[in-house]
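Q: what does this look like with magnesium ion bound?
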Amino acid sequence: MITVENVSKSYGATRVLTDCSTAVARGEIVVVCGPSGSGKSTLIKCINGLEPIDAGRIVVDGTSVADRETNLPKLRARIGMVFQTFELYPHMTVTENITLAPIKALKRTRAEAVKRANTLLERVGMHDYADRYPANLSGGQQQRVAIARALAMDPIAMLFDEPTSALDPEMINEVLDVMTALAQDGMTMIVVTHEMGFARRVADRVVFMDQGRIVEDSPTQNFFEQPASDRARLFLSKIL
Ligand code: ADP
Ligand code: MG
């Protein structure tokens, strides 16, 4: 579904990704972790075509992201993104947030889009909040709406960039529970997170990054029980 081949990227003179390769199969759940500044967000943005790459190749569902002929907005619309900071439209209700893109980009009728929004709100446990504005929701509730909004585009894969890092501790689990259910439904997911309990329970593989390199790419159990690199071991000893 997603292949990353020998990808390198710099911001000006600063190298942030060096020769990164990995692949995510349909239905696979991959957790990406590593120290702050190791390039996790950049990797996610490159996969989504939000940042250009300097070398290598990224292919999403058969389409090369860097290809000149690729319709990037169209490709991006097929990949759901969830960020640390929710980024709901503040002047729109929950339903309006979820139906905007399907109506505009997928040409759904309002009635169709609202029906689907209701189904998705049910799925993330937010059906009672359809007419609220983001400011009147907790962080955990906003993030669940953001997940529903991404799902409304019928994405082929979901990318999460530290979806629970901005949340108060008591709200983290309600978001992780929604993500776990999504994983169990067969969604292809790349999740940047430091929630190692979630990684252990849900991930098929763990990718560990350090200084712009993929240092480790292992089945989840191997990663936790016998990390191959000293750097991953050190990281785990600090975080667990
Ligand atoms: P992570 O998500 O693992 O914390 P990032 O991908 O955000 O790491 O950042 C990797 C490195 O790239 C950091 O050193 C960061 O300062 C740098 N960086 C990120 N975005 C930009 C940008 N837009 N311009 C310049 N440098 C950036
Ligand atoms: Mg980041």
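DSSP finds nine helices and ten strands in the chain. The beta strands are 2-11, 14-24, 29-33, 55-60, 63-64, 79-82, 157-161, 189-192, 205-210, 213-219.
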